[in-house]
Amino acid sequence: MGQYIVRRLLQSVIVILGVTLLSFLTLHLAGDPTYLYVSERASQEEIEATRKLLGFDRPLPVQYLSFLQGLVRGDLGMSIRSRKPAVDLVLERLPATLELTLFAMIISTTIALPIGILAATKRGTGWDGGIMLLAMFGQSMPSFWLGIMLLLSVGLQLRLLPISGHVPVLAPMLRGDISEGLSNLPNALRYLVMPGVTIGLFSLARNARLVRSSMLEVLAQDYVTTARSKGLGERTVILKHAFRNALIPVVTMLGLEFGFLLSGVVVTETVFSWPGVGRLVTNAITQRDIPVVQASVVLFSFLFVSLNLLVDLIYAQLDPRIRLA
Amino acid sequence: MFRSRLLLLVLLIGALLPLTVAAQMPDENTLIIAQSVDVGALDPASVNSRAEANIFFHVFGTLFEIGDDGALRPYLAKEYSVSEDGKEWTFTLNEGLTCHDGEPLTAEDVAYSFERAADPANAFTGNTAGFVLPGIGYQGMRVDGDLQVTVLTDRYQTPNLRLALISEVYIHCKDSYSSKSLEEAGQNPIGSGPYRFVEWIPDDRIVLEAVEGYTLRPTNFKTQIWRVIPEASTRVAELIAGNVDVIANVPPDQIEAINNSGVATVQAVAGTRRIYVGFQFGENFKDAPGYDALQKTEVRVALQYAVDVPTICQTLLGTTCKRASSMVNPPNDNPNLEPYPYDPAKAEELLDAAGYPRNADGVRFETVLMGPRGRYLNDANVVQAIAQYLTDVGVKTTVDIRDWAEYRTLVGPKEIGPLFFLGTGGGTWSALYDMADLSAPNAGTNYTNWNNEEWFKLWNSLADIRDLDQEREVINQMLEIFYNDPPWLLLYFQPDFYGVSNRLDWNARRDEWIVIYNAKLK
């Protein structure tokens, strides 16, 4: 197991380096970023001075190596725009994005599991048809459209929830102010509902379909028939025998889910004015604030890779037949 | 039992919901403004965009203030005088000025504000260091007394232009900034304007609080909250819900919804940003389709008649607009020049005469029109419309649209053409400010690489003209040259739309500034 973890961690380093190289090249190939940091009326001398100042006059391999040297030291550079350490900027915004992502995961999982099981156990009935129809709708709706529709109907017309904005919970807690975080929680939930549903609905629908198909497969297994023939109650058969085995593909999906939801926050954070990493990265890309983009890429890659490793470990725990080697 | 508990829960939630929603609405002491972008940092020398400047202008005073009519009004300084050679500008400050931390604001602080922005060691790339100081030929500062300070420059410049540029430099106290690192200074601004900084939650809001006893400008609201709402539909929804008082950049297709809401109305102003299609003269485009044809003055004049600008405004920008007759904003433009009318028959006639008749396939020549997406009002659609108008008169035009972030990096090194769509900021206070785009054949903003000898000869002659009437004459002459040998396909001054709550008495300005200290409840 230990050897497996070490090997996976080494693979992760290669993945992270590959991702940073790709993003670095993409940002530079899209034009000289210097022009985004000079006035429209800047002279050629001023443009050249700024290029030198920002280090964009150096050859690309030198710039990338310089970034790697910093990375090894844990220094991801300073934001060109705000003159703060890039990693600090990302970490400042991360709690807001985590709140949104975790909330979306919670609703997508807690609702998907029971309705997926319900659809499987009531296969061919109106329940099954209705749930699958809704799941299809959930997967078909683009998140930017859903977000704006929710905002206009629930926020503006019905005035049930705030239209946009954010009340922090994790950030004060991470600062050590647990009581502020907790006191913010009720109001924060009101701000979370619409953006959370917007990014979580697609996953909810997909997970519900996955749970259903996984359950159907397990329910057809011999050991389930045996359990039933032993006279066990249907509830026990489903929850104790079938559900645990049906969970394996779902857990695999949940690991990828986090990365999927993180990528989905970019649009949702923009629609709901949510001050998270998604918007930070979007702005940084637009402004070619390369250190901030790179810091976000490193952090997100690290999170994604770590979660996948965690999922693999859980996978082995759920199914003793699986051996990690 | 379960049902009754559920009903109770639903009722409880229902009762609490409106309370919380109502809690975010602005009260009579609070003014909430929503813009699409956040500030990058809170250092006055780092201000780069209009959205940033709008906030900083309320936190920091300036020596003079550019009024909404283009007039320049005393602010921190009560008067100024100019040396005989026009190179030294001496300002006399009002007495008893202080910064927000209580430190007295004197001439030494004004000098420090300029010097700090200009110091290469600080490496500022904001508007002051990158545009204003080079623009005035800044050489340094001289403190002439407690309340007298002189800006030293290397050349004469027409007074309105120089004063307007100097009025963009934010003034702060020396002690509160010299003791801080750049990072610290960028987090906690200590200003000299009517509002003090309270809080910045990045990408969410900036909160300002009125400075008690501030007499130079009114502070009708105790608190200003500048929210960041990037999505236009969300800004509109917040305005209609009554949660914000002013929003910028209303999309034309949502004007009606706001006006019908009974809560807010849209104020449309003819902005000062000049929108045009540039004809590229740069040699690096000589192999590009249509390049040779576009070098001919007759062809460029002919194309002016091919585009129906009023219809573009009406259908794509949601408002009526008058076509530009030059690169200068009214009322500083040449009153004798009439905008080119839409007359496709005349365009065709002139193209025939220029030696570009229609071929058998109906095409005179082919070209490419480059344009941005996401920078100017409905830009990509306007580009498509212009290309179609040109194609209609036989100039088969292909569009090449890029996202603004990429397009901007092509604009700087002038790698756009042979036709390109662009907008550049202008002002209401001086024709020369608008004309400075073409200050030299190799000027950074001469994106077309236009090189009309007569124009640049006259531009250089302006440096020796002190008489304002004579200056006006030369300007009019230059604008005629521009009109008759156009480097731009003249379009319009970009209209700007602001959504304004009906509870507010405030008028939007033409120059994209949101100056709102004077707003009050109706």
Largest interface: A-B, 54 and 54 residues
Helix content of chain A: over 70%
Number of helices of chain A: 12
Rg over CA atoms of chain A = 24 Å
Cα-based radius of gyration of chain B, to the nearest Å: 26 Å
Strand proportion of chain B, as a percent range, falls in 15-25%
Would you mind describing this structure in some detail?
The complex is a heterodimer of chains A (325) and B (522). By secondary structure, chain A is mainly alpha-helical. Chain A has 2 domains: 2-72, no CATH class; 90-324, MetI-like (MetI-like fold), CATH 1.10.3720.10. Chain A is 77% helix and 0% strand. Chain A contains 12 helices and no strands. The radius of gyration of chain A is 24 Å and the shape is globular. In chain B, the strands form 4 sheets. A 10-stranded mixed β-sheet of chain B has the order 8-9-10-1-11-16-12-15-13-14, sandwiched between helices. In chain B, helix 17 (453-461) runs antiparallel to helix 18 (468-484). The longest helix of chain B is centred in the N-terminal third of the chain and has 22 residues, at 2-23. In chain B, 51% of the residues are buried. The chains are: A mainly alpha (325), B alpha+beta (522). At the A-B interface, helix 2, helix 4, helix 6 and helix 11 of A face helix 1, helix 4, helix 8 and helix 15 of B.
Brief characterization of the structure:
The complex is a heterodimer of chains A (325) and B (522). Chain A is 77% helix and 0% strand.
List keywords for this structure.
heterodimer, A: 325 residues, MetI-like fold, 2 domains, 12 helices, B: 522 residues, alpha+beta, 10-stranded mixed β-sheet, 18 strands, 32% helix
Write the layout of secondary structure elements.
The complex is a heterodimer of chains A (325) and B (522).
Chain A: H1 2-29, H2 44-54, H3 60-73, H4 86-121, H5 126-140, H6 143-157, H7 170-174, H8 178-219, H9 222-229, H10 234-271, H11 277-286, H12 290-318
Helix pairs in contact in A: 1-12, 4-5, 4-8, 4-10, 4-12, 5-8, 6-8, 6-10, 8-10, 9-10, 10-11, 10-12, 11-12
Chain B: H1 2-23, E1 30-35, H2 50-59, E2 64-66, E3 72-74, E4 77-82, E5 88-93, H3 107-118, H4 127-136, E6 138-143, E7 148-153, H5 159-166, H6 175-178, H7 182-185, E8 195-201, E9 205-210, E10 223-228, H8 232-240, E11 246-247, H9 255-259, E12 264-279, H10 291-295, H11 297-304, H12 309-317, H13 344-353, E13 365-373, H14 379-392, E14 395-403, H15 404-411, E15 419-424, H16 431-435, H17 453-461, H18 468-484, E16 488-501, E17 504-505, E18 520-521
Parallel strand pairs in B: 1-10, 1-11, 13-14, 13-15
Antiparallel strand pairs in B: 2-3, 4-5, 5-7, 6-7, 8-9, 9-10, 11-16, 12-15, 12-16, 17-18
Helix pairs in contact in B: 11-13, 17-18
